[in-house]
Design brief:
7 helices; KR_dom; oxidoreductase; 243 residues; 7-stranded parallel β-sheet; SDR_fam; binds NADPH dihydro-nicotinamide-adenine-dinucleotide phosphate; 46% helix; SDR family oxidoreductase; Rossmann fold; Sc_DH/Rdtase_CS
């Protein structure tokens, strides 16, 4: 039996892209997955498909910018399955633009989803993990957590923050595994929220060489399936031919 089977795995941002691919792979490997995102219709459809294939799947509408909502999501999983083994803080948004465009509402949205959302995910499971002296937090950062490009200042700032928060969590909680997953370019809906036309064109060009989301899902599965005394701290996964 794989070290993934029967684990209770919560995935934020499971309605598309990397989160959806991760749900598919982990459910196929026998994990009990709990899907969260705002687009419940997508979650419902995905859950039905995975259940038809024999998976154990629950879903719940989730907005990670709300601590209350995120706690309710975790409590729902705990009530349904009796424990939580893995929390994957994957939800993210990327409305890029040059700082001089002053798209302050979009800066705040990135901070709210990409940083506060991760913190809310940690807060929702940490007491349970501390009590059990076990658990695994997987936070999705980015190659933008290492490097900054023009138009990406705030987005990269959020992803640097995810790496810093994850490292702090790892240092403070020795009984809990903490993994940072930092993808390069991956096919998904992530760039759809870019409202600045020039930035959209530039990013579309940059995103021509991309991995499919299942490449990141395989990285996540690798981290989860290690024995409990092995903590895969960080995975950086780029397309071979990409930047
Ligand atoms: P997608 O846009 O396909 O997926 C993003 C997911 O986040 C969606 O399921 C969306 O669901 C969810 N989401 C957004 N806002 C919220 C919210 N407030 N509450 C709950 N869920 C939310 O993009 P990806 O799959 O590519 O992105 C997943 C992660 O990977 C992100 O953190 C992203 O930054 C990171 N990443 C992606 C890269 C790429 O090239 N694709 C590269 C590096 C990192 P819904 O709208 O239904 O709420």
């Amino acid at each position: 039996m794989s070290n993934i089977a029967q684990k209770v795995v919560l995935i934020t941002g499971a309605s598309s892209g990397i989160g959806e691919a991760t749900a598919r792979l982990l459910a196929a490997k026998g994990a009990r997955v709990v899907l969260g995102a705002r687009r419940t219709d997508r979650l419902e459809k995905l859950a039905a498909e995975l259940r038809a294939a024999g998976g154990t799947v629950e879903y719940r509408t989730l907005d990670v910018t709300s601590l209350e909502d995120t706690q309710t999501f975790a409590d729902f999983a705990l009530k349904t399955f009796g424990r939580i083994d893995v929390m994957i803080n994957n939800a993210g948004v990327m409305p890029l633009s040059p700082l001089a465009e002053l798209k302050v509402a979009e800066w705040n949205q990135m901070i709210d989803v990409n940083i506060r959302g991760v913190l809310h995910g940690i807060a929702a499971v940490l007491p349970h993990f501390k009590e059990r002296k076990a658990g695994h937090v997987i936070n999705v950062s980015s190659i933008g957590g290492f490097q900054v490009w023009p138009t990406c200042a705030v987005y990269c700032g959020t992803k640097f923050a995810v790496r810093a928060i994850s490292e702090g969590l790892r240092l403070e909680t020795k009984e809990i595994r903490v993994t940072i997953v930092s993808p390069g370019v991956v096919e998904s809906e992530l760039a759809h929220t870019i409202s600045d036309p020039a930035t959209r064109d530039m990013i579309e060009d940059f995103r021509k060489v991309a991995l499919t989301p299942d490449a990141i899902a395989r990285g996540v599965a690798y981290a989860i399936e290690q024995p409990a005394d092995v903590d895969v701290n960080e995975l950086v996964i780029r397309p071979t031919a990409g930047g």
